[in-house]
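dumping the sequnces here before i forget
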Amino acid sequence: MKIKSKWLSIFLVLGLVLAACGGDGEGTTTTAGSGDETTTTEDMGDDPTTTEGEMMDIATDVGVDLEAGTITVGLLSDLSGGFAPLVTQIVAGQDAYWAEVNATGGINGLMVELETRDTGYQVPQHVQLFEELRDQVVAFGHSTGSPHTVEINDELREQGILAVPLTWYSGWSDPAINSNLVPHGVPYCIEAMNLIEYMVGLSGVDDPTIAIASIPGDYGLDASEGARLAAAALGLEVVYDGTGLVIPGDTTTYDEVAAAIAGADPDLVYYTGIPNGGWPEVYGRAIGAGLEALWSGAAPSWNPAYVAEGSAISAPITRDFVGSSYYEPWAGESAGVAHVREIMTAAGQPPSDYYSEGFVEATILHQALLAAYDNGDMTQAGVLAAAKSLTSVDFDGLAPTEVYTGEPNEIVQRVQWITRPDPTSETGTMIVEANYTSDIAAAYEFTGACYVLPEG
Amino acid sequence: MKGRPLLYTSYEADQAMLNTATKRVSAFLFVLVLVAIPLFKVGSIGAGDNPMGALPGPDFLAGNDWLRLLTSVLVFAIGGLGLNLLTGLAGQVSLGHAFFMGLGAYVAAVLGMPGGALWGLGLPIWIWLPMAGLIPALVGVLIAPTAVRVRGLYLAIVTLGLVFIGEYLWRNLDFITGGSQSGRSHPPFEFRLWKEEEPLISFAQDGTWFGIFNLSGAAKTYLFLLGITVLFVLFAKNIQRTRVGRAFMSIRDRDIASEIMGVDDFKYKTLAFAISSFFAGVAGALFASFVGGAIPETWSLFLSVQFIAIVLIGGAGTVSGTLMGAAFVGLSPRLIRDFTAWMQDIVQSGEGMFASIFDIVVSTGQADFGLINTAPGVAPGLGIDQLNLVIYGLLIIGFLIFEPLGLYGIWLRIRNYWKGWPFTY
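..and the predicted 3d for all of it:
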């Protein structure tokens, strides 16, 4: 009996110790918000130290702390997965943007703090990190990846929280899907129309033929759908359609698609893929087989490393490739991009085209936060409502003006930049057309997603 | 026999699942605490007149965020128990766990989701969940004849092949899986008798249970999976204690010797593969449904490695070790990240004696040197994910060399130390 009771007491003591350790963890983990979603009104006018003379009534719930003077914004970023090289620079752009905003007085005195989480481009991790942040942040400054954003979309709606999508799937401009999203830039599908019409003009060939290829997933499929629409609108003959046939990581599919493209001998190729999963491989094999054509693909297909020193495809791709950008690249002339250059250079960052994207995302949220402040409602729902009622977000030339009220066909973005590779430039690209919209893209009636995600 | 807890007078008592009173009491309390966790949240008890009620306890655990982490630990535990039976108990190294998990997930999706652009039958959970285990078990039996002919490293390579065959299939069978990088939705945790509109019981939607417990969807999912996990723990524990389990262990210790003793090598190795695949299939289906959707890239070699880590870090061949391993692998990324963030806060505030020590470990800005960073690539240092891989690797090596029984072995040492305390013999 004695032994038994001693055992029991030891277990209980151990249990208490463990429980105490658990209690410690609480203090360091989830302090903000703690899941309490009631709306409170804080009156900063009572505070004698406030610098504002007038009375302010700002409703807040999660992520905005008027006493501490902070606004917390979440970033769901791919910092270690397939798009990490791009997204780390986009996050660096966001960091620099908000650092400057905070240094010049913040959002009417409130400092913006970023909670950046690495999703690794994994859906389960993306969902888990969303769950972690949803009761800590007032909005999501970006959400990387289409399947990932689809997976949290229902929860975004349920909670009434805003996210800026870091993906250009055309569905984000579809009002049936985007009630909690503020898309920006040209969707993949309309981008294909712009690029293909531009390539037709550049090729100088009468009745050029086109080959289309892509990786699976909404990114590749949406771009290929746009390429097919463009070919139909321009009367181009599609001599090969390898939509969804390039499987990243599966080199036999690179060989098959490259051989098929080269065998079809097109004048134009629209191939949407990922830089570290088959784009340069398919290109290299096709030109190795003797193909001479103009090549293009949705913007994330491009990687400055293609024309970096020592790249085997540097010379041919400089001749063949037509690129695009959803915002003005580093070498642009607008006041907006000059501002990006100034800030990023001051922060000691090397030249890159991708900081602009961070600035564009942050500008949209910045405008939404200012509008929410003016409305006196900085709750999650208030920031969402403010963002969805923005009639014009101006980027000072860094990106075309975005509108979030109106019919999808009127507000969907059609303006972008056309680039060509340039090994001698700082970022590997040069701008050949600014604020470009093709005739077929302008005429295209946009009613919803070009490629519809399968049900179920 | 009071006062002599180690004296057994019958075979049943010796072989009992919980063979001492202490174990019985502690297991009971442990399960009780696990069940109570969702009720720590304010407002979780008394939906009607008294909405503020809650059990006293660390209420951060009852938030959606931590409940989801704990739920993922439960799923890891089910999958881990399966691999533990195969690798820990029967001694057959397998890297193919992710393949069977993926297979289970897609069986569940085809059976459980309504049809449309992708294959689906829209059947209720009491069909799709068992089938998500049975069909992988059947495939396990089909693969076993190849696998039982080889041992050790060669078996690891055969099962490694399965992962790559699986990845190829999942990417190309896009009418089932939704295709690479797109994926498909998986059936929610809802109980229906047949195909009614409204589910009889939903384990995913917020709502009140029994008129008293005001539970969130995450809490219900957690409790549902806790129930399933307890069943699988009992199942695994029972296999271990029976003729089958002893046959597995004899094969692990020396397969030729065990054959001479009359153990049918082929039969039991096949059985080990089948049971392990059953566990893996169910775990895969639960995992995909818990997340809501899965892309073919989910079922990669990395997932298999995580399960190897669960078994080896937890303690090969033991059920409680596997549970500890699952908790470790499930929670360590989060704990490490929170700890890193805490260190970064201290460094940034620049106060206290630890600030300068932590400054070497964490990286706080673009130009600041540090080993760890919560935002890799933006500032120098390893990301939490990368750091975790390094830690798994080091721990697997460390445990294999110094403590083959894993966390369970460490627990045994602590237990034995206190058993003899204050005498250290």
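Chain A has 14 helices and 14 strands.
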